[in-house]
Input
Amino acid sequence: MIRHLRTIRLHSIAGLFVAGLALGAASHASAQPPPPPDNPTLEIYGFLQGDAILDFNQNNPDWFDTVRPSKLPNVANQFGQDGHFYLSARQSRFGVKGALPTANGTVTGQFEFDMAGVGKDAGLTTIRLRHAWGQWGKIGAGQTNSQFMDADVFPNTVEYWGPNGMLFLRNPQVFYEVYRDGESNARIAIENPGASGDGGLVADRVELQNVRGRFPSPDFTGHYRLGGQKWGYLQLGGALRYIGYDDLLPNDQFDLNGHVWGWGIAISSNLKVGPSDTLRVMLVQGAGIENYFNDAPIDVAVKSNPGNAVTPVVGEALGDFGLTLYFDHAWNDHVTSAVGYSRVDISNSNGQAPNAYKAGQYASGNLLFVPAKNALMGGEFLWAHRENFSDGFSVSDVRLQFVFKYSFGVKVGG
Output
């Protein structure tokens, strides 16, 4: 009965979201995109950046030049003693954008990378692909920002990773632009699926070590943005996903095959609260969508299934909540500041270990100065906090980061 009600709720959420997109499309059916440029254009852009970081505490050394609450220690002194100094150039970025008018519409594309290794390259200074995508008419494909996220929520800060509670994932996808009218638009997409799992207290069991995730369908995402308003814009985003897992030991006494549904709703905005002031806000609620967050660790965790000897444990899509609230202020044409707070809260399963990630908080404030065109320098104060599931352990990290950034760009054609 509970599973049936959850299915109805998921279908209702998805139905309301798709209906919203359809209504938006109908009301803007006559809107046309801006006319294409007469000639091909090519833009080369990027920046060179050096960061000097004084870390008063500690975090996972593979993420030395980022502030991620999930990478803080889960036991005392897990990564040694407090106090570290780093210099990093990994934020440096290079990109190319192009537009090619044709008789059947304009083809646009973007290719961009930085040098901050992640995944198996975590901690290395190596190429990290950010964008590799193109668009013709209303159809786009490649790797770019998820249609579930809102990149404009990212504040004017210099720390690489940014607020943990916002959605931030560049994902391979195919998207369709339902409509565009000035700064308002709606898109739907199929995106590359993926999720992380936690075996929790029974992770060392052979049976659990032979369970593998399987993704038979893409993630379905989309958003609707009401833009071009004097007060700013409002965006609604949604995601729905199927996460399967297979038991690779079919001849033992257990059947651990199964699946869960992941879903999420996000509301975000940039509010113009003054001629030089912007309030950036995002609220996210869902389950099993942690990998869409800027910093949240586990999508699915093991949960006990009492009274069932064949399937003693099942997977649970972990509930998640995200909040981001930042205030950007321009003191004048050369000096800016950003201050704000973000957090992630996870609804842990009863099968997770006591030191599993429960909640993370992130806060920062800065003063940035533009001494000359294409040059930026300044300092930023950063604080992060991690709380474990049930063992009572929590830890904080405090940092100072100083930035020296030099931008470049050239545009040809058009």
